[in-house]
Amino acid sequence: MEAQIDEILRKNQLSVTGSRKRILELFLASNGALAHGDIEKKTGEKFDRVTVYRTLQTFLEKGIIHTIPTPDNSVLYALCKDNCTEGHHHDNHVHFICRECGKTICLADITIPEVKLPGGFLPHEYQMIVTGLCKECR
Amino acid sequence: MEAQIDEILRKNQLSVTGSRKRILELFLASNGALAHGDIEKKTGEKFDRVTVYRTLQTFLEKGIIHTIPTPDNSVLYALCKDNCTEGHHHDNHVHFICRECGKTICLADITIPEVKLPGGFLPHEYQMIVTGLCKECR
DNA sequence: CAAACGCATGCAACTTTGTTGCAAAATGAT
DNA sequence: ATCATTTTGCAACAAAGTTGCATGCGTTTG
After folding, report:
1. Of A44 and B38, the one with more pLDDT
2. Which member of A60, B14, B69, B83 lies 3.0 to 4.6 Å from B9 by CB, making a disulfide possible if both were Cys?
3. What is the β-pairing status of strands A104-111 and B75-79?
4. How many domains does chain B have?
């Protein structure tokens, strides 16, 4: 894992620092999405709030992670797949949020179906969120 | 419109008060979605911030409005269709958010296409957001 | 239509969340 | 090891959202 983390950072021309390693580690460990609060709690002892904000911001810009809008308007972040590049994301898969345990899962295999928009609308990015119960909670 | 507003409130067993009337009026006038900030600005003189929060909260609980998650994680609210009831919403239409003017439009005619979820997941609610350029801004 | 009850509002204080500027420390290149 | 650059932590601040309580308004009842 250590090596994987280093590679991700190097590939994105980011210096390898403690907070970046730790936060990436968290993302790799949980194969779901993390709220800012989650990250802050798990790193709170070691890193400043501000550092967490800035690290996430950096990862977003580099396309390492992406945000997931949720119905209750909390902020969630998740790792992007390899083919995400700076500026343009290719994470158009469906996100599932469990009502019970609150966990957010990237359904990487499920691509968002096409929809026909009324004339005049020029679509750019699609997001789809499904809420319900996950395997464990049903 | 006055009558329509009264009816909505009565139907939901809510007392007819100034702030509720005004906020409903705003929703009816803009046939898109409103951010909390929008509402606060347009009513700021007359009502307290706290009242706006509580009014929106009440409307949410009664199923008069629903929230729309946006890619930049701001909070948007929009009127529900008539058949929304307390607890269970039926607003599964697509929402379009314009990158340019920021306006959010309910594409009430476009229903969210079905997706097959991996085994074990029990879906409850679907949300779909498309960002891009609207008719005016393209 | 008046009185009384209960709910909604405004205010103040507070918590949480996110941002900015700057000095100190850590990182990577030489 | 040294130096330039980037990252971090701190402090202070700004914005967003919450809570408790006293007052006032809307609704109901007689």
Report:
1. B38
2. B14
3. unpaired
4. 1
DSSP codes of every residue in B7-51: HHHHHTT----HHHHHHHHHHHHSSB-EEHHHHHHHHTTTS-HHH
Residue B66 scores a pLDDT above 70: yes
Least Cα distance to B43 among B55, B33, B31, B32 occurs for B55
For residue B89, give how far its alpha carbon lies from the nearest alpha carbon of chain A (Å).
Answer: 12
Map tokens 């003189």 to a residue: B45
pLDDT, residue B39, reads: 92
Find the residue in B nearest to A135 (Cα): B120
Average pLDDT of chain A to the nearest whole number: 84
The torsion angles phi and psi of A78, rounded to 5 degrees, stand at -145, 155
Stretch among A88-92, A122-126, B22-26, B79-83 having the lowest mean pLDDT: A88-92
Domain assignment present for residue A19? The answer is: yes
Q: Is residue A137 in a domain?
A: no
Residue with CA nearest D15 C1'?
B37
Inter-chain residue contact B127 with A123, CB threshold 8 Å = no
Structural domain for B50, as ranges: 2-132
CATH code assigned at A60 = 1.10.10.10
Between B67, B116, B125, which is nearest A73 by CB?
B67
Contact A123 B131 (CB under 8 A): yes
Per-residue pLDDT band for B90 (boundaries 50, 70, 90) equals: low
| Domain-located, residue B138 | no
By Cβ distance, the residue of A114, A117, A126 closest to B107 is A117
Q: Do A128 and B117 touch (CB under 8 A)?
A: no
Rounded to the nearest integer, the mean pLDDT of chain B is 84
Residue at B137 is within a domain: no
In which band, very low, low, confident or very high, does the pLDDT at B81 lie, cut at 50, 70 and 90? low
